[in-house]
Fold:
Amino acid sequence: METIVVSLNDRIDAFNAPQLREVFEGLLSAGHVNFIVDLRDVKFLDSAGMAALVTLLKRARQSSGDVNLTWPTLEVSQRILKLTKFDRVFTIKNNIADFNVTVSKTVTFPQ
Amino acid sequence: MLSDKLRIAVVTTFPPGTGSLNEYGFHFVNALRQKFDDVSEVLLYVDALPDGEAYPPFEPDSGIPTTIIPCWEFDALNNATRILKTARQTKPDMVLFNLQFATFGGKKISASLGLLTPALLQMWNIPTVVLLHNIMETVDLKSAGYAGNGIVERVLRCFGYIATKLLLRAELVALTIPKYVEILESKYKADNIVLAPHGSFDDTVHQPVFELPEGPMQIMTFGKFGTYKTVEPLIEAFEKLQRRPNADLELVIAGSDSPNAKGYLAGVAEQYKHVSNIRFTGYVAEEDVPIIFGEAAAVVFPYTSTTGSSGVLHQAGDYGKAVILPNIGDFAEVITEEGYTGEFFEPEDVDSLATAIANVIDNPDHRRAIGQQNFLASHGIPIAEIVDWYLLHMQTLLMQKPNRNGPPTVDRTQLA
Structure:
């Protein structure tokens, strides 16, 4: 099963979440449905960033795909995942290798 | 064949009902009714309208089939059992409560008894999710008009603690502000509390319009007044601003009395009848809300206390409005955490309020910058997406528990 890794870095918040959504939309439109969003290097994640991830999850599952996450390294970035309890909805692991999947492509955001 | 779509009941106030949170209920339900992939039917458990008035039915093609069931009344003592009876008869997969502490009554007993409803439904194995717009821990009960003295306040805090414990019997309790989640998690050691942001009501506006209409510059306040939202300092600040040279201003007091302060606005109108250019709109119908906000140069929050994330603040953000906010407790921290900004004033300090308003209306660039940031904060997440958050949590919850009526109604391979 082909999996795309979207590697996020820097802050993901209300100011750049719309651009992240565009990246996700482009990948979905290209037919990709299985994703690992790599959050390890995210400096900060707010609810707007979380919403972009949830929308990706919903869209991917509607196409019989899925979205998995890696845990952010920084506690401040883990906070929103725990507050929203989406750590119970997404499968989250420490490293991409833990998912044991074949990665077909890696996209970095912001580039 | 198992159904993969949910029948969801929503306990809420709803227009033309005028109870608190009716507008949130309206937007939430309208968004829910568009979730054709996840929901098969919506049941609205609403409060009965006065004088036996009927709720207008939904247009047949406007969304998922929706049945309006008036099954409770503001200040009635038997709301919990009436809602339970309705739920047992209509058998939804999940009941969502759109609540604040005074949803079911302005009197302490009726309000408290109503808050038992989620726990009662849980006892009957009817899964519930509670959206709680405020938490007792951050409400100044005296300023909010609920406690006249220290003893009453302590008693209410005790009731509040018990009510919150009971609300936490729900499968999930959703709060709109990160800090509130942390406060309740820490105090009640609960692990069923989630953050679900308020969400933007208007996802059709792409960019706010910063230009103002011809005529006097409108300073607007919006809400239900008379308890912790009082307009006297605002009117006095407005008087000061009107005395400035070339002042061409109008004060728009949009909304009605709080259920706990009947006759308040009529009294204020009488007291300040000598002040010109004040417009009392009365209750603002849904279709007039965009006009009221759209024409305002600034939206003022004349609060002496806060009871949670302000729905009015989110509306002001939807329309890209500059806001003038009280410097109370952690309100600034809370709204900043949500991405909003504004000019701050000291509560009940007329000079401070007049200065804050002047800072906004005298500086178009500043007004626009505040409005733009609030617009971005508000439009971070449309309410339609917040509804998806609830649906994802509900589906996850229902996966984990056997259905009360037999086999699961959720296809476990289809979670979104």
Q: What stands out?
A: Helices of chain A lie at 17-29, 47-62, 75-83. Chain A has one domain: 2-109. The mean pLDDT of chain A is 94.
